[in-house]
Design brief:
This protein is mostly helical and 213 residues long. It is built from 8 helices and 3 strands, in the order H-E-E-H-H-H-H-H-H-E-H. The longest helix is centred in the middle third of the chain and has 34 residues.
C-alpha cells in the first residue's frame, strides 16, 4: 500500500490524505485502511450509544410519554444526520486545509469534487456503522456491538485490499473505492444502504419490548 509518486496537486494530496491505495498492475484501488478510519472510530465512540441509551434508563416511562416510536426514531435519525454531516465537514476541512498548505499549486476543481464525494462517503459510513452499533447494542449489549464493529471493520479492510481487481467486490465493500469506475454510483449505493439499515432499525425499535434489557 503506497502513496508514492503522488503529484503535488491539492486534489491528489487531499485524496491520499484520506485513503490508502493498492496498485495491482495498471489498476489502482483506493481503500479506507485502518489508519484512515480514525474519523469513523472516533464518531462511533462518541455516538455509538446515541439511540440505545434511551432504552437503558427509565425506558418504559420515556416511551409511554412518546407514544409514536417511529416519529421519535425519525427525529433521532435527523439529529444523528446533522451531527454526522457537521462532523464530516469539520474533518474534511482540516484535511483539505492541510492539502492546500502542502501543495505547490492552487486549489483545483477536482479537489472540490473530491471534497463533496468524500463528504457523502464519510457521512454515510458514520451513519451506517453508528446505526448498526446502536441496533446490535439494543439486541445484545454495547460491548457485543463494539466487538462486532471492530471485527467487521478489519474484515472489510482486508477484503478491500485483497479484492482490488474484482469490480463487483469493490463496489459492494463500503471501504473500497474505485475512483475511475463508479465514484458517484458508490455514493448512491451508500445512501441506499444507509436508508435500508435505518428502516430496519426503525422497524425493530417500533416492535421492541421495553421490558427486555
Amino acid at each position: 500500500m503506497t502513496s508514492e509518486n503522488v503529484d503535488n496537486s491539492v486534489s491528489e494530496l487531499f485524496k491520499y490524505g484520506l485513503v490508502g491505495s493498492v496498485t495491482t498492475g495498471d489498476n489502482t484501488q483506493f481503500v479506507f485502511v485502518i489508519e484512515s478510519l480514525s474519523f469513523l472510530i472516533m464518531f462511533v465512540i462518541l455516538y455509538g450509544n446515541i439511540i440505545h441509551r434511551h432504552f437503558c434508563n427509565a425506558a418504559d416511562y420515556t416511551f409511554i410519554r412518546i407514544g409514536n416510536r417511529w416519529l421519535w426514531y425519525i427525529r433521532e435519525c435527523v439529529h444523528l444526520l446533522i451531527v454526522a454531516m457537521f462532523y464530516s465537514v469539520i474533518y474534511l476541512l482540516v484535511k483539505f486545509s492541510i492539502a492546500i498548505n502542502i501543495s505547490s499549486y492552487k486549489c483545483d476543481v477536482q479537489a472540490i469534487k473530491y471534497f463533496f464525494l468524500f463528504l457523502g462517503w464519510t457521512c454515510c459510513l458514520n451513519l451506517i456503522f453508528t446505526l448498526l452499533i446502536n441496533m446490535f447494542a439494543l439486541m445484545r449489549g454495547t460491548n457485543f456491538s463494539m466487538i462486532i464493529f471492530s471485527i467487521v471493520v478489519v474484515i472489510l479492510v482486508s477484503l478491500a485490499i485483497a479484492t482490488t481487481t474484482n469490480n463487483v467486490a469493490s463496489y459492494i465493500n463500503p471501504l473500497s473505492i474505485n475512483m475511475e469506475l463508479f465514484p458517484k454510483a458508490k455514493l448512491v449505493y451508500l445512501l441506499g444502504a444507509t436508508g435500508i439499515i435505518g428502516g430496519v432499525f426503525g422497524g425493530y425499535i417500533s416492535k421492541y419490548d421495553i421490558g427486555v434489557k
